[in-house]
Amino acid sequence: IDDEPYDLLSDLCSEITDGSRNATAFSEKGIPYLRVSNLTPAGIDLTRARFLFSADNIEKKAIISEGDILLSKVAAIWKIAIVGRSFNGAVISPDVIKIRPKDNDAREQLINFLNSSVGQLSFAPAVTQSVIPKISLKQLSQIKVPVNLPKVDMGAKERELADRQSLVTQLQLSYGIDAERIHAALPEELWVTDGLTNERLDVSYYQY
To answer: At 20, is the pLDDT very low, low, confident or very high (cuts 50, 70, 90)?
Structure first.
């Protein structure tokens, strides 16, 4: 990386923070409180998520917006997710890092870097030596992000999973449908085995 043109990660971002330690008022529904377990390659998964009754005591740094990039702060668990519109105003836990790119070009450069093997290896110097090694925010800002890194192309299967997760999230947030029921009603195959059902949620099922 030192021989190639690069940008410091801090120069590509308007904000690099971790989550809130003030979350205490949990409820069955409300504002999503996102932990490392909610980050998946297909996006943010609300299965086993917790919710906050109010964000009154939550620091502004822990509130996320569309386009933010979330990263696991726990070094042993490499997870990233892009924040969609459905999660505007959600809150992240202390073990999640929020990276807010300064513009769309910076976002594309960062996403490509974080999804590459070079990106994952580049985080090693930013890991603190402790019982549970975690990524240091101070060291994170000094990571070098290559300008001309070959683009990591998302395959058809990955795009399908991302679209599916986006639909699941919208159904959970809009209608309060349990995640297990959604996954059962959105099977990966269109085939009918035992007979027609009115429990399916995918539109294409009813088009034949």
So the answer is: very high
